[in-house]
Amino acid sequence: LTHAFRSFDDVLRSSSDVLLIAGFAALMMWIFFSAALHVTERDNPDGEMADYYRTVPHAMWVTLLNLSGEAPLDKYTTWGKILTGVIGIFATALFGIPIGILGAGFEELVEERIEEAEAEENGEGGEGDVENGDAQTDPLLVGGSAPALESAPQFEKALYDITEGVGSSFAKWFEVAIYVLIFITVAIGIIQTVEGHEDDFSFMEWFAVIVFTVEYIMRFIGAGADPAFAHISNPLLKRLRFLVSFYSLVDLAAIVPFYAAEALPGSWADRHDEFLRMLRLFRLLKLDKYVPSISLIDDVFRLKKDMLIVTGFAAGTLWVIFSSLLYVGEYHDTENGIDPVPVYGCDDDCTMSDRFRSYVDSLVYTCIHLTGDYPIIEYSSWSRVFNFFMVIAAVGLVSIPSGLVANGFTELVQTTNRHKKGEEIPTGGNAGDDWYEVKLRELEGEPAPPSKLGPAVDGWQIEVNEFLNGEVNPRTGETTHTCQSTSFRIFMLTLIVLNVLAVLLETVPEIDRAVGNQAGNAFDVFEDVSIFFFTLEYALRLFSARKSLEALYSPWVYATTFYGIVDFLSTAPWYVERILLASGFQESADASTIFRIFRIFRLLQLEDFLVAFRKLDNVFRASKDVLKATGLMAVIIWVGCGALFFLFEGSNPNFRECDDSVPLRGEYDDNGTWVPGCYDFETTRDCNESYPGMCEQTSFVNMPDSLYYTAVFLGGEWGLVDFTWGGRFVCMFLCLIGIALYAIPVGSLFDSFGAVIGLAEDEDEE
Question: How far apart are CA 213 and CA 614, in angstroms?
Answer without folding.
Answer: 46
